[in-house]
Amino acid sequence: CSYCETWTGIxxxxxxxxxxxxxxxxxxxxxxxxxxxxxxxxxLEATSIPDDHWSWIRxxxxxxxxxxxxxxxxxxxxxxxxxxxxxHVRAFVSPQVVEEMKNEMRRLAEELWNPGEEGKTRVFRxxxxxxxxxxxxxxxxxxxxxxxxxxxxxxxxxxxKLREEFRGDKIAALNKAGHGMHVRPGAFHDYAISREVGxxxxxxxxxxxxxxxxxxxxxxxxxxxxxxxxxxxxxxFTEPHQTCLGLWLALDDSNLENGCLWVRPGSHRExxxxxxxxxxxxxxxxxxxxxxxxxxxxxxxxxxxxPWDGTLPDGSDPPCCDGLFQAGFxxxxxxxxxxxxxxxxxxxxxxxxxSGKPRHTFQLHLVEGPExxxxxxxxxWLQYPKGQPFLGIK
Length: 394
Prior knowledge:
Blueprint: E1 5-6, H1 21-46, E2 54-55, E3 60-61, H2 76-84, E4 87-89, H3 95-112, H4 130-134, H5 138-141, E5 147-151, E6 174-179, H6 187-192, H7 195-203, E7 209-217, E8 226-230, E9 238-239, E10 245-250, E11 261-263, E12 274-278, H8 280-283, E13 292-296, H9 300-305, H10 322-326, E14 330-332, E15 339-343, E16 348-350, E17 361-368, E18 375-376, E19 391-392
Antiparallel strand pairs: 1-8, 2-3, 4-15, 5-6, 6-7, 7-17, 7-19, 8-16, 9-18, 10-15, 10-17, 11-14, 11-16, 12-13
């Protein structure tokens, strides 16, 4: 996901250092991280998952009392997803689809984003400045069904303008675009309603999948910010239970060098710890209060079990990343066109991109719709205009 692509200081934002993680720590360190990851992922793949396993989306054990459809039955991919909380689908889309998305994003940025012309350029954060940046800005809230642009905070000067080095290449300053990419006709919409997406989502057990939001994350070379530990359902809350599904599509090769995703297998069984909610004080009349606030909704015991939520585990720094492994995280490297699917309660993060190569991704977030007996929380930050439904997947 990423509500959370931002720089919070693991590395200097303007490093005078070599381009890759392997250059920083040596090929030995990089090989060691890959070896540890391969050992974990291989063990997960080798683990036998019984037919009577637990279904994340149905919130019950198999065999399901009410299956998604009369002919539906769990596949090996469904079992792996339910057991571990993520699924890596290789070559999910073709190189042509990848190129079409990147070209469309380039065109949208050139045509629609004019940083500094309409006041202060917006940045995107997940550090201690997140509530102030996103929780007090109508530009963020109004992006629900539109395409709005958010810059890397280190690409903006003290006056809210692009730093000089980015003025000739404004796209290189972008952190993300969202959150209604899939609503506009074009490559992103075509992908969202594609047979590939629909088939996978149904295979995993969703009954009435709808798409509240989509995002294009740039993870720029050298300045692409980290994504702190989080659960997507914090931002995409459904009732009476959580149904968010993240579809994280790599548009560039995603690896240890340029900030690939780290997931914590099994953490999707944990409750949602925090909720990013509309502040009743602000919307009740106190305009001095922030529009959005984080609410702790898990028990104190569950909060204590994940002390790094919203930050990173101690000792996460490359090149060894020992703290991440000790906390149970594992990196999942992808080729362009690969997809990572994971439920909204999975704990995941990524480290900054210090390499000389970008790590573009396109991300869809789906939830169950009303035909599945699920309601979109009225307190969620993202709200479409009254009467406008989310895009459905057939």
